[in-house]
Amino acid sequence: MDHDLISRLAHADHPIAAPVSDDSVHRLLRRGIHRADARLLDLGCGTAEWLVRALSAYPGVRADGVDLSEGALARAGERAAQLAVQDRLTLHRKDAAVFRSAHSYDLVLSVGATHAFGGLLPTLAAVRPLLAPGGRVLVGEGIWEREPSQEAIKMLGEFADLRTTVDRVAADGWTPVHGHVSTRQELDDYEWSWTGSLASWALDHPDDPDAEEALSTAAEHRDEWLRVYRDAFGFACLVLRRTAD
Ligand SMILES: C[S@@+](CC[C@H](N)C(=O)[O-])C[C@H]1O[C@@H](n2cnc3c(N)ncnc32)[C@H](O)[C@@H]1O
Predict the structure, then answer these.
(1) Which domain of life is it from (predicted)?
(2) How many angstroms separate the CA atoms of 82 and 139, rounded?
């Protein structure tokens, strides 16, 4: 089954592709958007859910979204049109790691996409030249809440605990001005939703040629989550400013 189709079905009931609730998204955006006419950039925007919510809530804001996925960007455009914010959203099908712009941005987001840059600090290094003076970064990254197994590291990548993550960011010249650590409920909601929406679609479409694979993909993902990483994986969103420039 095409990865994009799996992602579309799995995110049907949780369009933010990260373990962050709708309330937390709004709270983080409020901390990140510090001027009424802010220009936003989302690197690895997926279906641009963060941006369309920001554009809906803040009528003076404009935004650019960057992603490699044609399908995700198409859905971003549809969603922006549904909410009548498409005039203030520009979508770029590009590699976020090499995205350049003539503009600078008041808020640069990158949530669940630091792998596109090779990790958290390389993400911040890439964001830095894109930031307007006084600009903020809203970055969402995995953390380890408990010692991970080797299998979990192999599956999800190299993360650190919250304290080490924040220490590294601070040592790199950034000051956290807000943060959010996903709660157990947010982490579980995201996984139940991902696996449950995909499985439900399969059960609702038993004659579809993809139904069997969708059901087994959901079951495999659910098993990996419960067996390999649920006990150790966490997720943190940090709102950062340059400490000095
Ligand atoms: C976990 S999703 C997060 C999407 C979105 N930030 C959100 O929170 O809803 C990661 C996204 O990063 C995108 N991505 C991965 N590598 C990328 C790259 N090199 N350039 C641009 N986008 C990339 C994927 O296509 C995917 O949409």
Answers:
(1) Bacteria
(2) 26
**Region 17-145+157-183+233-242: CATH code:** 3.40.50.150
Q: What is the rounded distance in angstroms from the CA atom of residue 127 to the CA atom of residue 197?
A: 33
Q: Is 245 a residue whose pLDDT tops 90?
A: no
Query: What per-residue confidence (pLDDT) applies to 17?
Result: 98
Q: Indicate whether residue 51 lines ligand 1 (CB < 6 A).
A: no
Is any ligand 1 atom within 6 A of the Cβ of residue 106? no
Dmax over CA atoms of the chain, in Å, equals 60
- Give residue 3's pLDDT band: very low, low, confident or very high (50, 70, 90): very high
Q: Which atom of ligand 1 is nearest to the CA of 42?
A: 6
Sheet with 89-93, edge to edge strand ranges: 89-93, 62-67, 39-43, 105-111, 131-144, 233-242, 174-181
**CA-proximal residue: ligand 1, atom 11 (nearest):** 44
69 Cα nearest atom in ligand 1: 25
For ligand 1, whether the C-beta of 19 sits within 6 Å is no
Could you state, in order of their start, the residue ranges of all structural domains in the chain? Answer: 17-145+157-183+233-242
pLDDT digits (tens, 9 = 90+) for 58-70: 999 999 999 999 9
